[in-house]
Amino acid sequence: MRGCSISKEESSLVEGKSDTILEGKGICKGFPGVWEHLILDHIDIDVRAGEIHTLLGENGAGKTVIANCLSGFYMLSEGQIYVKGKPVTLKSPRDGIRHGIGMVHQELALVKPFTVAENIALGLPTSDLTFPLPEVEDRVRELSEKYKLYIDPLARVEDLSAGEQQRAEIIKVLYHDPEILILDEPTSLISADAEHLFEALNSMAEMGYGILFITHKIKEALEIGNRVTVLRLGKSMGTRETAKTDKTELVKLMFGEHTPAHLERKPVGSKRVVLEVRNLEALAADEEPALQGVSFSIREGEILGFAGVSGNGQSELAEVITGLRRATKGEVIIHGKDYTNHNPRDIIRAGVSHVPEKRREVGVIEPMTVAENVVLKDIRVSPFSKGSFVNISRVTAHAKEIVSRFGALVSDLWKSQTRILSGGNIQRLILGRETWRMPKCIVAVYPTQGLDAKAIDHTWELFMRLREAGSSILIVSEDLDEIMALSDRIAVMSNGRIVGMFEGSKANREEIGLMIATGASGSEHSQ
User: How buried is residue 345: exposed, middle or buried, by Cβ count under 10 Å (0-12/13-18/19+)?
Assistant: First the structure.
């Protein structure tokens, strides 16, 4: 390894091809049958020895996909990868490791009951499994000390903090002696340990490693990186030296400069509050705070959009409101009645429809047929049943109407299991099921995920009709165009808190984008 480091100011002076140890040219990636467009559209990116190159973009921009392509987890649809100037074909992560590329994924892949050393031993080639475990433990101690990623090889993973588990995952990759390290959203699971991680990565860069650091946080990109490449919707918006750019420029690259249309609508006429949340707090799956003092209300015939990068509490907020997650503090008031920590059936009976984020796990029952899923919440009520008898003809007619109206591609309503449908077609079924009764309140999380442009337009029109009919709608979306087009008011969430509230018709894209990207609180324009 080279024993040199490159400062942010000096990184622009590194011109030689010998310094570029990983390069992707014209990288394209598509997944047939899932999206009509390329997930990655002719991306050029390179990583130099001794530098930290940050890859910045919103969730869904394609950051993880390009990391998976560069490390061998995905094969390219088009383009070429070069390692030290030589073209390589990566068919698997093992190929990536063989060429000196190691990746630390956002979702850590550790066996919780095993020790750190045992986890690393699991990833060794079969020929190496005869090595005594103490040798693995000694090597972990050596790497831990060398890279300042202090971890006990004998500690069980389940007893480690999130930051310690991440260190173990990094050491698991370093065990294979890579020269290039790719880290996907490494601070998403840690907070207090982030500074420690940055120190370790800077130390590794000084030793000559090339590091690709993936993040959606502009502050991190500027703090840790020598250069930053911005992705938006699968396209590269350009590469900048961090010493010669700032938050304002990066926000424009991430979110664009155009002002999306705010769909025409009549002013909210009613003062009647349908949904109110008071000082809500809840924990995430890892028992860390997910919601911290969240308060808001939605009036009859109003759309409140929640903007922000995923992982900032929006999903947990929707789950608490719909009865899928317990609140540790605060209240959820629906039509003036306290429904805090009621079960989902009670929330449904209160007139709340839910378009969930996890459509396959929560939105449908995959082994059931399409017709059964379409009437999943209504099968026991008129007109679909009477007493214990299901009216098959009415269910069939209703399912046909939903499928036709929302353009879902279904071969047989009663024979096709929902599990065989694409994500987009499942989304269409859920939207149809949750909106056909014109509900008084809708909680919609990423309502247009997986839909094509025509279906997105149809969904936006549907929400505007529901609003006109008096529905109160809470929308969570990472698509800023969608939020600004649909919302009467826009709430920005960061780290489990509402950091800004804007009137939809007066919202400033750049201000909202900056708030999303930095998490900084802004002046509240409306409540």
Answer: exposed
